[in-house]
Amino acid sequence: VWIFGYGSLVWRPGFEFTSSKVGFIRGYSRRFWQGDTFHRGSERMPGRVVTLLEDCGACTWGVAYEVRGEQIAASLKYLNMREAVLGGYDTKVVKFHPQEKDGGEPILALVYIATPQNPSYLGPASEEDIAAQIIVSSGCAGHNIEYLLRLADFMRYFCPQAEDKHLFSIEEALISILPCLYYNEDSLEET
């Protein structure tokens, strides 16, 4: 079984796997439209994590993990809790295209997608509003800023040829807000 990750699974799968491949799926755009009140946020201040939006002209880059034998049941049990129960995601099967030139035919892979019907779905917002929400959110897996920056780093280092305007625009908005927060904290200390 192959499992495709496009968010935190790219750097922290949390389950045993036999092999992994960087690549993409077609027909979806990655969006920071899913709320998170456990891993990267709280009930009071939900974080923003990614989901996939159907978009016939787009592709989303990530990592596919191959699980075999006893790894299958353990990984699916773990991911069902992490992604479905705690995250509000549903599973789908997609065609994964490996980045390697000799990757062969596309591979069928499971993917977790949060839909607008789940109670944690936040939907669209401006890049600046998403960045502002990310800056103030933290959960049991860490700060929401870490989630955004690790995902941007993954794209830069493993998929430098790919574009993800939404992701990099939010990163840019976050970086432009941070000096303002730092300045305001210093100003408060001086008074």
Automatic annotation (TrEMBL):
Q: Which Pfam families match?
A: ChaC (PF04752)
Name the Enzyme Commission number(s) assigned to this protein.
4.3.2.7
One GO MF annotation is: transferase activity
Gene name for this UniProt entry: Chac1
User: Per the similarity annotation, which family is this?
Assistant: Belongs to the gamma-glutamylcyclotransferase family. ChaC subfamily.
Q: What does this protein do?
A: Catalyzes the cleavage of glutathione into 5-oxo-L-proline and a Cys-Gly dipeptide. Acts specifically on glutathione, but not on other gamma-glutamyl peptides. Glutathione depletion is an important factor for apoptosis initiation and execution. Acts as a pro-apoptotic component of the unfolded protein response pathway by mediating the pro-apoptotic effects of the ATF4-ATF3-DDIT3/CHOP cascade.
One cellular component term from this protein's GO annotations in UniProt? cytosol
Q: Where is it chiefly localized?
A: cytoplasm
Q: Which UniProt keywords apply?
A: Apoptosis, Cytoplasm, Golgi apparatus, Lyase, Neurogenesis, Notch signaling pathway, Transferase, Unfolded protein response
Has keyword Lyase?
A: yes
Q: Which domain of life is it from?
A: Eukaryota
The entry's protein name is: Gamma-glutamylcyclotransferase
- List where in the cell it is found: Cytoplasm, Cytosol; Golgi apparatus, trans-Golgi network
